[in-house]
Amino acid sequence: xxxxxxxxxxxxxxxxxxxxxxxxxxxxxxxxxxxxxxxxxxxxxxxxxxxxxxxxxxxxxxxxxxxxxxxxxxxxxxxxxxxxxxxxxxxxxxxxxxxxxxxxxxxxxxxxxxxxxxxxxxxxxxxxxxxxxxxxxxxxxxxxxxxxxxxxxxxxxxxxxxxxxxxxxxxxxxxxxxxxxxxxxxxxxxxxxxxxxxxxxxxxxxxxxxxxxxxxxxxxxxxxxxxxxxxxxxxxxxxxxxxxxxxxxxxxxxxxxxxxxxxxxxxxxxxxxxxxxx
Length: 278
Description:
Helix 7 packs across helix 8. By secondary structure, the protein is an alpha/beta fold. It has helices at residues 32-41, 59-70, 91-99, 122-129, 147-156, 180-187, 210-224, 244-254, 260-274, and strands at 2-7, 44-50, 77-83, 104-108, 137-140, 162-164, 193-198, 229-232.
């Protein structure tokens, strides 16, 4: 069984995505139906939707739309990681609205597209602390040189469960492991951070192989341990590196030497516990 903790859906007729204009390969609709056809063939059984950095005015509409899809017969969608703006003063009100909705399992604010000092602001940090005790997670998506910013957040809010997306977004295409490797070892020392083994094929360039990915995936797992790693597709971003089926096949190849228990924890068990999925 696979729980995909990182699915993006794009519907340009319903929501606005300002960033898509700069990524022509992704600037089209990517529907749940398109994803589900392929996902069911490769063993995905449950899915969390990950916010797609929509226009701020569309944030709550995105969650509502995905929740509607989850109510369709046979839907694999079991929750959403919603977008948020912790840097804004009205975050507390927004948080209370989302806490009332059990479909919302956590939040994400994309940090690699904003100034580095955004996460250092007092309002931002105070609002992140509000997640403590709520069981709602906060996904961190940062570039390797920004991992120390993520470490600072984890230290400032030890009662908040953070999830580091995409193995810390290493520059696999550039064959660059430093300072990514050292930063990953350091952030893994924080027990309130889980790593997401997700979508790294998008960063690997057109000629990647399983061995290209191996140093990055294996170091992430070694640093965090088998109890603090979850799996995600990052569809449709993963189509930039071969697609969902290719990434699932690569994942199985990378896990070929591990035990059944280790594989099951990464692919589903840890996600079930982290987000209290049935």
